[in-house]
Design brief:
The complex is a heterodimer of chains A (260) and B (287). Chain A is built from seven helices and ten strands. By secondary structure, chain A is an alpha/beta fold. In chain A, helix 5 links the parallel strand 7 and strand 8. The N and C termini of chain A lie far apart (46 Å). Classes of the chains: A alpha/beta (260), B mainly alpha (287). At the A-B interface, strand 6, helix 2, helix 4 and helix 5 of A face helix 7 and helix 8 of B.
């Protein structure tokens, strides 16, 4: 690691404008963000700050209006297995069992059936859903669905996991549990995670680096490295200081929105 | 169904599926109750029919007992021994053949067409207007044209059944395809399933509940249309026997024909539903 390593994700002056009904909306203005391999980065901001747009550009669902989105130095041309996405609303295939949802990626990429089955079993075990391998998504709770969504992405050998407020629809207890499980997975696998949230505490608990974004137009406001020791104690003074500082910064962004 | 087992340690919690067959005894009782309730209205109707028609010297509508006797004669003969005796199965088989033949043809045409119209904008622009204009034309209005195009006989009946089943299947397939959650295409794409492969892995399974509704409706319409279809100078079929009996003022046979169509239609719908329940076990609204 002597020379500066090539970032796994590199957003260079990425802007995104949408045209709808004769009006153009600037969702994201000149965002620069380099994510190193193995990092856990949180995009934090209020709604309309462009954090989901930036994530969708990284996923390849949206092409930047200007600027460049690179992975390992090459332009991102569209969605692909190397960048797995975990949606807030899960996006599981309701007609497939847990096993087949997790095996969907390898199967779609033409792996032999026996191998697909092995991979599925391995990742079912990784997220602790052995007893539910043959259940359909509608039979699962929200937390279980999100475990399936995470396993599905990992089973497909994603190098980067993009998470769009993945725990936003879950109750507090489940959310905390999944945050712990995610950190555990991350430390064991060396994944790179780009995680969108509007919850300050969640960002501090999870991230190495918090990217603060602000609305009108969406842009990156500030970047904070978080060097609190893990597992982080949410009631420690250091945690609280950081929370207070980020909250103050976040709230100062609210005013200019009305002008648009 | 399973909100309670959220935060506990996972492997200890039981899967949610077996809840359905948890209490067999209660289920049996519930089924019996449902059966009893279903019989109430038919029993009342039968009683009214009996009271209104029995014992009158001159009634245009025969009493239930007379219809029942005729039905037995139609099925196995030995009561009247006329031209109609024992012919029921021939007619039923002819109608079944046309209903399922026309229905199968309609499904074979409407399913791929519906998938394409729902998913490919060019094909939608090309075909949708034509189909929308043809759709309100009642099947009965096609009868004269069908007779010119296909001649008097079974082929016209077949065509009308086809037409009757075609639109419900098509419309529901298009609807199903159009209402696939966009999120699922994104999920498939980021997992490496793109382009035409999405047809098989996403579009078709996701729209299956809607397609199934279409198939059920289509089969129902096929039974509705069969009488009209068999008015076009065919010799056999439940529609044909009804028309012939009407001309001979054999109202009891007309009623028999109606009853057989009702029962046959009901059974065939039930079979489709069983199949649907198997295929759509994953869907909370069908399974």
């Amino acid at each position: 690691m002597a020379e500066p390593a090539l970032p796994i994700l590199d957003m260079r002056a990425v802007s995104k404008t949408y045209a709808a009904g004769g009006r153009t909306t600037e969702a994201l203005r000149e965002a620069n963000l380099a994510v190193a391999r193995g990092a856990f980065v949180c995009l934090l901001g209020a709604s309309g700050c462009g954090k989901s747009t930036l994530l969708r550009v990284a996923a390849g669902f949206e092409a930047p209006s200007s600027g460049e989105a690179l992975m390992w130095g090459k332009p991102i041309a569209g969605p692909g297995p190397s960048r797995g996405m975990v949606f807030q609303d899960y996006g599981l295939f309701p007609w497939l069992t847990v096993r087949d949802n997790i095996g969907f990626g390898p199967k779609a990429r033409g792996r032999p059936a026996a191998e697909v089955r092995d991979i599925a079993e391995r990742y079912i075990a990784l997220v602790g859903l052995q007893a539910f391998a043959d259940a359909y998504p509608h039979q699962l709770s929200g937390g279980m669905k999100q475990r399936v969504a995470i396993a599905r992405v990992l089973a497909n050998e994603a190098e980067v996991v993009l998470m769009d407020e993945p725990f936003g629809a879950l109750d507090a207890m489940t959310r905390e549990r999944l945050q712990d499980e995610l950190l555990d997975l991350w430390s064991r696998t060396g994944l790179t995670i780009l995680f969108v949230t509007h919850a300050i505490e969640e960002a501090i608990f999870l991230a190495d680096r918090i990217v603060m974004m602000s609305p009108g137009p969406g842009r990156i406001e500030a970047v904070h490295e978080v060097d609190l020791p893990r597992r982080r104690d949410v009631s420690s003074p250091a945690f609280n200081d950081l929370r207070r500082m980020l909250a103050a910064q976040l709230h100062s962004h609210h005013a200019p929105r009305a002008a648009a | 169904m399973s909100s309670g087992i959220e935060t506990g340690s996972l492997p200890a919690a039981a899967p949610a599926a077996p809840a359905r067959r948890a209490d067999g005894a209660g289920l049996g009782l519930a089924r019996l109750r449902r059966l009893a309730l279903a019989c109430v209205v038919p029993a009342v109707l039968l009683a009214v029919w009996q009271l209104a028609t029995a014992g009158r010297s001159y009634s245009l509508i025969p009493p239930p007992a007379e219809v029942w006797a005729e039905l037995r004669d139609l099925a196995v003969g030995g009561v009247n021994d006329d031209a109609f005796s024992g012919t029921l199965w021939t007619h039923l088989a002819a109608s079944l053949g046309r209903v399922y033949g026309g229905f199968a043809l309609a499904a074979a045409a409407a399913l791929p067409l519906g998938l394409l119209i729902g998913r490919v904008p060019l094909i939608r622009a090309l075909l949708d207007p034509v189909l929308q204009i043809l759709r309100p034309v009642p099947v009965t209005a096609w009868l004269p044209l069908a007779m010119i195009l296909f001649g008097l006989g079974p082929r016209s009946a077949f065509f009308l059944v086809f037409l009757g089943a075609f639109y419900p299947i098509l419309v529901n397939t298009v609807f199903g395809v159009r209402s696939v959650e966009p999120r699922l295409f994104e999920a498939a794409a980021m997992l490496g399933c793109t382009g035409p492969a999405q047809f098989v892995r996403v579009v078709l399974p996701a729209s299956l509940p809607s397609i199934f509704t279409g198939l059920r409706l289509g089969l129902g319409f096929a039974w509705v249309v069969i009488v009209v279809g068999e008015m076009t100078g065919v010799q056999t079929g439940l529609g044909a026997i009804i028309m012939e009996a009407r001309q001979l003022s054999r109202t009891e046979i007309v009623i028999c024909g109606m009853a057989v169509i009702g029962v046959a239609g009901f059974i065939s719908d039930w079979l489709v539903m069983l199949l649907g329940r198997r295929l759509l076990a994953w869907s909370p609204t069908h399974g």
